[in-house]
Amino acid sequence: MTTASGTTADIPAARARFTGRTALVSGAGSGIGRAVALALAAEGAQVVVAGRRREPLEETVALIEERGGTALAAPADVSRAADAEALVAAAVDRFGSLDVAVNNAGIFRGGTLADLSEEDWHSQLAVNVTGVFLALQAQVRRMRTQPSGGAIVNVSSNFGLHTASPGAAAYAATKAAVTALSRGAALDHIRDGVRINVVSPGATATGMSLRPGESEADRTERARATLPLGRISATEEVAAAILYLASDEAASLVGTDLVIDSGASL
């Protein structure tokens, strides 16, 4: 359920699939990442929230603690191997394990292919692809040493393998790479006890889905006219899908790419 402020409402204690588990969520200072962190904590997880800036991470931690949860803010640059390793170490040092990881950090730099700067191309590759690669390496290396293994969910996009949009070719290429990387890694490491899956959101209620100069009301009208469902996804809806893939309920799902885009890619 979503409150008027757009945050996740408290989940009944009986719904506690992650009690005693430690989760790491990147890009957790806002949007989908914050919704995932709140949802994991509400279901019993101890959550390490990661991102580049400390202040929004501390806000996420405060929201979790207000609801009786436990969280740790861990600023990091996911495009750096040392930071990826440090995030895993922070989770293990503070809470004793790393059971769930959600690699959500990502950036969008729009522009037609011929006009996109080389800097914007490389920055998207660094965060969206190399960041996931480095995170997977650090997370799998830890999880495969644990008797219970672990579950990883990478956040891709419906742009890429599922659909396309003008001005997003480079971004779509990075997200298609995330899906391909995730499926290969899933096959490599399922026998190590590590399950890896993907969610591919479409337009979601975050700033990234607003077009230049567009208001939220404009976006609502656009979605009503263009999306089969008639609306965009709430961050909580994407978070619910991520929690399902990370939970024991999805124990036989390996390398799945779950598209959540209001029917845009049909």
Write the SSE topology.
Layout: E1 22-26, H1 31-42, E2 46-51, H2 54-66, E3 70-75, H3 81-95, E4 100-103, H4 118-143, E5 150-155, H5 169-189, E6 194-201, H6 216-226, H7 235-246, E7 257-260
Helix pairs in contact: 1-7, 3-4, 4-5
Task: Provide tags for this entry.
266 residues, alpha/beta, Rossmann fold, 7-stranded parallel sheet, 7 helices, 7 strands, disordered N terminus
Number of domains: 1
List the uncertain runs: 1-14
Helix content class: 40-55%
> What's the tally of helices?
7
| CATH H-level homologous superfamily name | NAD(P)-binding Rossmann-like Domain
What is the overall silhouette?
A: globular
Distance between the termini: 27 Å
Structure description:
The protein is an alpha/beta fold. Helix 1 packs across helix 7, helix 3 packs parallel to helix 4 and helix 4 (118-143) runs parallel beside helix 5 (169-189). It is 41% helix and 15% strand. The radius of gyration is 17 Å and the shape is globular. Strand 5, helix 5 and strand 6 (194-201) form a beta-alpha-beta unit. It is built from 7 helices and 7 strands. It has a 7-stranded parallel β-sheet, with helices on both faces. The chain has one domain (22-260): NAD(P)-binding Rossmann-like Domain (Rossmann fold).
